[in-house]
Amino acid sequence: MEGGRAGVGDLKPVQVFLQNLLAELVLPNGAANTERFSSLRHVDAKAREVRTVLESVAGQMPDFLSQMNADPDFKANSRRIRLEALANYCRSVVRFIDSGIGRVEKLITKPPDLTRLVGAMPDLKQILEGRWTESQTCQNAGAYVAAVVMMGSVLEGLLLAIGNNNRPQCYRAARAPKTKDSKQVHLEDWSLNSLIDVAVELGWIKTDRGQFSHALRQSRNVVHPWEHMATRADFDEATCRTCWHVLNAAVDDLIRAAP
User: Fold this and answer.
1) pLDDT mean over 167-182
2) Which residues contact 235 (CB under 8 A, 6 or more apart)?
3) How many domains does the chain have?
4) pLDDT (tens digit, 9 = 90+) per residue, 30-58?
5) Is 125 within 8 Å of 118 (Cβ atoms)?
6) Do both 77 and 165 map to the same domain?
7) What local confidence, expressed as pLDDT, does residue 10 receive?
């Protein structure tokens, strides 16, 4: 589960599987359904299914798998005893998931050290660090549009910061925007499109990163409702993961390029 550790919400399919299995293992009165499982081999096959499921979610709950493996009831020469033991483990896991005791929130990664990029503007550093965290919070909550907009704003803020530290270079760049009468446009009025192009031209961002950064820019533009409607954007977890990787790669480039 990317983006951080999995929470109990991710265990719901396990819970449903075990609840359905319980309906096979026991009768409505709670007794072991020995008629359905006519041999020890049949019972063991179901126990292996449960072990496989528990192994797939190891680390997200108490170690029920080790307890099962060490339980002598699964070696008893009795279908009833083995079925009852298996049913008890299924109930225990279901109750654990249902309780939410083991809920673990997705991790929020700390922002990288942006001091070299925004040293001249410490207030901007605080803002961008906050947005770095907020973008992940939005993604974890399923607010994907908000997450992408935040990621785009972090990239824009950092490009403005490094541009501010290197204004003469920016204004001399061939991709620097000009007014209709060929005058310089103040850096603060540059679009994110121009900031990315100039950053690539000056070697602050690798060429391929620049292309991906433009993709993030286009996604970020859904902050405008009309653009959102026109592009029919439908962001999801995968969109956010892609944008997050793009942002991280671009930030790594910028930090390396900073004097």
Assistant:
1) 92
2) 144, 145, 147, 148, 219, 222
3) 2
4) 899 999 998 999 999 999 999 998 888 76
5) yes
6) no
7) 66
* Structure token digits, residue 233: 């954007």
**Tokens standing for residue 142:** 């399923």
Tokens of 76: 């008893």
Same domain, 130 and 218: yes
Separation CA 257–CA 259 (nearest Å): 6
- Domain of residue 132: give its range: 115-257
- Give the span between the Cα atoms of 10 and 187, in whole angstroms: 46
Q: Which residue(s) pair with 178 in the sheet?
A: 184
- What is the pLDDT at residue 237? 85
Could you give the 3-state DSSP secondary structure of residue 143? coil
Q: Which string of DSSP letters, residue by residue, matches 49-109?
A: HHHHHHHHTTTSS--HHHHHHH-GGGGSS-HHHHHHHHHHHHHHHHHHHHHTTT--PPP-P
Comparing C-alpha atoms, which of 104, 113, 106, 119 is closest to residue 132? 113
